[in-house]
Design goal:
Family: Belongs to the cytochrome P450 family.
Protein name: Cytochrome P450
InterPro entries: Cyt_P450 (IPR001128), Cyt_P450_B (IPR002397), Cyt_P450_CS (IPR017972), Cyt_P450_sf (IPR036396)
Keywords: Heme, Iron, Metal-binding, Monooxygenase, Oxidoreductase
Strand content: 5-15%
Pfam families: p450 (PF00067)
Order of helices and strands: EEHEHHHHEHHHHHHHHHEEEEHHEE
Number of strands: 10
Number of helices: 16
């Protein structure tokens, strides 16, 4: 239907790779922040508690506030940080795969609950110093909170998300307070020192610290878990593909990139036109919503020929991590977890196969996978 298609509501669906890239990287496209929401005729549409809470997080901020908060985090997962984290990720992966191996001795196992949901929370949890006994609670409220980030959430979904949002605020506000009272040599303590120097108002500094810590945590969980599940599903569903990669481990990084291209964990991202403009030949008025469709962009045959084929040796490109000032903060960490887990699984489970297809939660934006049956 075209690179830019009018949506049934006040917005546009952007499907072409180049058009999506232009929106993600262009300075004249902004996140739908509070200022934009307040200018809308139907401003009450964004009054839900969970929606307003997420509008305050890094992903929904624009300059100069976005610039300030992002700089305060530094380059979260630069090369040296990834090198320091690698032994921890390897240790977590090995322990979780031990559990998977135990279950597989008795037949089938659910890969999602055993491994793919657990590796991200153990990785980010140990990095931030979260108590391991809190991991199940954090996973549960994260699953419920993301309903607020859907394109068209229902009132019942917003109610579930509102409760989860209150729980997230209580948990991470308390975490910041405890870390301030008992500093450590860790990431969160470093952020506290940074914001104490930037913001003289202690209450405002702690509010920003709560939002940053909460956002970094939940952003590291849902999407990475889906990536890990899709990776195992796509590589084991076709006979011979798993064995082929096992004999050619030098292509593991390429395999991870093809999974990211083929089935991105997030399918939709929204931006706002900062001024009247033209996108792929279509006039777009200021303040109009445009919805970047990652899956469609990644499957644009002009960028990736024969896009419906899963091809590890494709050497193509994708927009799954976004672009521009909002490029995914955790991209390097997600790829570290994926390639570490995949390398170990190929070595330990040479005959792994999928016995039931992945089951997806009924969502448009976040492609959460709730189960994937595997066996030997």
């Amino acid at each position: 239907m075209g690179d830019v298609v009018r949506a049934p509501w006040n917005g546009y669906l952007v499907t072409g790779f180049d058009a999506c890239s232009q929106v993600l990287r262009g300075r004249n496209w902004q996140a739908p922040d509070f200022a934009w929401q307040e200018r809308q005729d139907d401003a009450k549409r964004w009054d839900a508690i969970a929606t307003r809470e997420m509008t305050s997080t890094l992903a929904r901020l624009n300059a100069p506030e976005h610039t300030c908060q992002r700089r305060s985090l530094g380059n979260l997962f630069d090369r040296s940080t990834i090198e320091r984290l690698t032994p921890d990720v390897e240790r977590h992966a090995d322990r979780l795969l031990d559990e998977l191996a135990d279950k597989l001795r008795w037949g089938e196992a659910d890969f999602v609950s055993t491994v793919s949901e657990q590796l991200p929370i153990h990785t980010i949890g140990s990095w931030l110093g979260l108590p391991p006994e809190d991991y199940p609670h954090i996973l549960e409220i994260t699953h419920n909170q993301v309903y607020a980030q859907e394109l068209l959430p229902t009132s019942s979904e917003l109610a579930v998300s509102a409760k989860a949002t209150a729980q997230l605020r209580a948990y991470f506000t308390d975490l910041v307070a405890r870390r301030r009272a008992e500093p450590r040599h860790d990431v969160l303590t470093g952020w506290i020192h940074t914001w104490d120097a930037l913001e003289p108002d202690r209450e405002r500094a702690d509010e920003i610290l709560y939002r940053l810590t909460m956002f970094v945590t939940i952003a590291s969980l849902e999407t990475t878990a889906t990536l890990l599940t899709s990776m195992v599903s796509l590589l084991s569903v076709e006979p011979g593909r798993w064995a082929w990669l096992r004999s050619r481990p030098e292509h593991i990084d390429a395999a991870v990139d093809e999974v990211l291209r083929y089935d991105p964990p997030i399918h939709i991202n929204t931006r706002i036109a900062a001024e009247d403009t033209v996108l792929a030949g279509v006039p777009i008025e200021k303040d109009s919503m445009v919805h970047v469709l990652y899956g469609a962009a990644n499957h644009d045959p002009r960028r990736n020929p024969d896009p419906g084929a899963f091809d590890i040796l494709r050497g193509g490109s994708h927009l799954t991590f976004g672009g521009g000032v909002h490029y995914c903060l955790g991209a390097a960490l997600a790829k570290l977890e994926a390639r570490t887990l995949l390398a170990r699984m190929l070595d330990r489970f040479p005959a792994l196969r999928t016995v039931s297809p992945p089951v997806h939660a009924p969502r448009m934006v976040f492609r959460r996978v709730t189960s994937l049956g595997v066996a030997l």
